[in-house]
């Protein structure tokens, strides 16, 4: 079994780690399949209350493994070349963006191509000061994938998104923070600890409420105000029926700090 993606769950935090450091965590077919299945498993696991996506070595993820890609081009294996988008990249993006719990990208190094796309599908991006983003697609004559056409304009606006996609370059961490690509930038040596503290805080929170807020914000981006209000009402009823809400109200009345159990 491939160990190109590792998975660990502790105290409600699932850490998914891309583990091909010698290949800059590039995505060959085996890695894409394992990553897709791992992200989907984390999304479905009620014991997981927050997900952290990160990488090992110098890169977060540089996107498609070009050595494999070149081999498929030379073999003229068009089915394998392009079926990977609906079979692997799209399901990964959907699972990251739509799971009913918070998702953090701990960006330890360069995130390029689909690697950047995956980071942008997360809620929060804690970025090492030595890391950066490169939207490399057009640099090799390709369009964009893994949801970046949807996520990037929502983060930084359409005009800036098109500029970065038309003219690929590595956006350093400090500029990424200014643009809104990064949530925070920390010294590289502090990345794991900072992401871990943030994940622990979210894992101790009202998971159903977080998931509902996440879904409400996403829904509102493509619906009318009236539709968004109706969607919000349904989520308010859902979260109002949770143990977390009832216990939090009781704690408020008792002037105590609430404890959330994610249900």
UniProtKB/TrEMBL annotation:
It comes from Kribbella sandramycini. It is an enzyme of class 5 (isomerase). Belongs to the enoyl-CoA hydratase/isomerase family. Pfam families: ECH_1 (PF00378). InterPro entries: ClpP/crotonase-like_dom_sf (IPR029045), Enoyl-CoA_hydra/iso (IPR001753), Enoyl-CoA_hydra_C (IPR014748). Keywords: Isomerase. Its EC number is 5.3.3.18. This is 2-(1,2-epoxy-1,2-dihydrophenyl)acetyl-CoA isomerase. SUPFAM superfamilies: ClpP/crotonase (SSF52096). One of its GO terms (molecular function) is isomerase activity. It comes from the Bacteria.
